[in-house]
Each structure stands twice: as C-alpha cells, then as structure tokens.
Design goal:
374 residues, 5-stranded antiparallel beta sheet
Length: 374
C-alpha cells in the first residue's frame, strides 16, 4: 500500500490504516460486541454518538447503532440536513441521515480504486476532505491515496477529476503561456503547472465553500499535504494557474466570513491565518510545540492538538482540540474553552455546524458524534 502522509501529531498509527489491514474492511473489527446505543443529545454540552461505535472499526451500512465507519475524516451538511462523510478506511463517501442511518453515497465499501464516471460505478481509494458547494449541491472530494481532487456533480451524479494524475507529484503557481502545460519553476523551486495538468501528493482537507458567483468563480481551498502547502483552484477544469495560498500542512481548514476573508489553518498547537496572496501565514493563537489546554490571548493560549474548524458568529470560530471545544476570536486572538469531555464518544477530528447554529457534528476515529452547544 502506498504511504500516507502523516497528518496528526500522534504516536499511534491512523485508525483507518488498521482497518485496511482487516479482511476487505468489511467487518466490525471488534468481534461480536453488541451495537453501541445512539441517542439524541439530552442537554447542551452532552456529546452523543449519532452513528457508528465508540471503538469498533468497520464498513457497514444500516441503522445508526449497527452502522460501522472506519476513520471518517471530512464531513459536510447537505441541503436536506443529512451529513456526507469521507471515510478513507472504507474507500467510500457515506451519507448519514438525521436519525443516524448510514448509506453509501459514492464508492463501494471496502473496495479501493481510482475510477471516475457515474456515481454508482465510481471507485475511490481513500477519500479524505469533503465540501458541498451551496446553491449547486456539487460535492468536492480529495482522494488521499489517488492524489486527486474530484467533483461529484449534483445534476447527474457523475464523478470527474478536477486535478491530479493518479500519481504523487508537485504543482505550484505561475502564469502559464497559452497552449503550454507549464512554465519553469516557482520561487520554491517547484514546477509550474496548469490545473488540468497538475499532480498532487496526498491531498487532505477542503475548506467549506461559499456559493459560486454568476461567473462561476467559486474557489476550492484544500491542503496538498505531501507538498506541504495549501492550494486554491477553480471549481471547473481550467488552464488558469494554481495558486499556492500558504506553505502550510493544515490539520483543519476554514475560510472565515470576514471582510478580508482570511484562510484559517489549524496546526495542532497553533491556529494561523493567510490572506491567500502567497504571504506567510501569521499565527493567531497558540505557540508551536507547546501543548496545554490554557485559555488566553495570542501566544499565551495553548492547544492540545487542534484539528477541525467551524465558523461561529462574526469573528468567532469553533476549534476541535482533542477532548475540548474551544472558541477563537480571530480579531483579538482570544481562546476560550467552551466544552470538555467530547471524547466520551470518540476524540473529535473534523467538525461542522448545523444550519441553525445549535448543534455541532464531528467525526471520530470510528463514528459520528454530535453535541448541543450551550
């Protein structure tokens, strides 16, 4: 199996790698233990398991308590209020209904491949990041092991490759002369390529998307982990040069809804911001390699291991930080702990906020959790 670029600072192997070692990833990976109970959130701040199991891996569709997932990562809410979840260990994108029922949205459970086409026939290797485009319903996915950025068209369900060749490689910015696939190298020494000729190296997270403009200029921000950078590309196959937003290997990504619309990047012990113009990312809060659950302002704050990000209100963001839910004001850099104990149903990874802003959903190593916000 090809390598997976390390994303999380941990001494343990990624859970989905363990699942891939199981036979076809088709079992629960945990014997004949009874299904985990699921329940609606009982009170603000009380995490519950929406789907999956607190500890068992697997690739099983079905009712919430019997469904199994294998290291789910990116997630997004569709227009119907259902969750779409990238499940790399199952080589599939899963749909999670409001009652927790799990079904396969794209790919085939436990069968990896690199095949585009009708959604019913598509094969994925390790879908990782996921975003839904408001207005169109198009779904954008990074396939970590196929080194691709994909689009699943809402109109006909077709899956097309927007970027990537199926093999690991490097791309970067540059004004490309018409009719040419590339032109020299950029200041980092990486070859310049057009989006339609570009190669990626283990892409991971995608920032939630804004609605497309009438000119179709909606942009996709995603992490190209193997090349240690965050890229910005167009939603349609294009000869327009790729833009490197920052030289960051983010563990969570968000375009904040502020006047300057900075790109926010969680980097385990720090949270950074980039203005998407190639300038270095600035640190908003935390201190590199210093781990703690300390509230404070700027570099006085400490994170345990920040991952997922979600917009709250104004300049305020939610940050998943191991078993904590933290609030970050990107204007002042102030960090405040709001909830503890989210890991009672599994340590949060990526997070998404419900349309009414009251419920936070999150992926765990083996399931989907939720919590009513206080």
């Amino acid at each position: 199996m090809s390598r997976l670029v390390p994303i999380f600072l941990t001494t343990h192997a990624p859970a989905w790698l363990v699942c891939l070692a199981l036979a076809a990833c088709g079992g629960s990976g945990g014997g004949d233990a009874p299904p985990a109970p699921t329940a609606s959130p009982q009170a603000p701040g009380e995490p519950t398991l929406l789907s999956g199991h607190p500890s068992q891996l697997g690739c099983v569709d079905g009712p919430a308590a019997r469904a199994r997932l294998s290291s789910p990562q990116g997630l997004a809410l569709d227009a119907n209020g259902d969750l779409l979840v990238a499940d790399p260990g199952c080589s599939a994108i899963r749909r999670v209904a409001r009652d927790g029922t799990v079904s396969t949205f794209a790919g085939r459970l436990g069968i990896a491949g690199d095949q585009q086409g009708p959604r019913e026939q598509v094969r994925l290797r390790a879908p990782f990041g996921l975003a839904i485009e408001p207005g169109t319903g198009n779904v954008f996915v990074t396939d970590n092991e196929a080194h691709r950025l994909l689009r699943i068209q809402a109109s006909d369900g077709a899956v097309v490759s927007l970027m990537g060749t199926g093999a690991a490689g490097a791309t970067t910015v540059g004004a490309i002369p018409a009719g040419q696939p590339g032109a020299g190298t950029d200041p980092y020494g990486l070859p310049r390529r057009r989006q339609d000729r570009a190669a990626l190296d283990h892409p991971t997270f995608i920032a939630p998307m804004a609605a497309a403009s009438p000119e179709g200029e909606s942009l996709i921000e995603f992490v190209d982990a193997g090349n240690q950078l965050t890229q910005q590309v167009r939603r349609e196959p294009s000869s327009t040069p790729v833009i490197v937003s920052s030289r960051d290997n983010c563990q969570g990504l968000l375009t904040a809804t502020t006047s300057t619309a900075p790109l926010i990047c969680s980097r385990s012990t720090t949270i950074g911001a980039s203005l998407r113009d190639g300038q270095p990312t600035i640190t908003l809060a935390g201190r590199q390699n210093f781990r703690a659950d300390t509230d404070g302002i700027g570099d006085q704050a400490r994170f345990l291991g920040s991952t997922g990000l979600a917009q709250a209100t104004g300049t305020r963001l939610w940050v998943a930080d191991r078993e904590l839910l933290r609030e970050l004001d990107i204007g002042s850099g102030e960090v405040r702990t709001v909830l503890r104990g989210l890991d009672r149903v599994g340590t949060p990874r990526q997070i998404v906020l419900s349309a009414d802003g009251r419920t936070l959903f999150f992926t765990t190593p083996t399931g989907i959790g939720r919590v009513l916000l206080p």
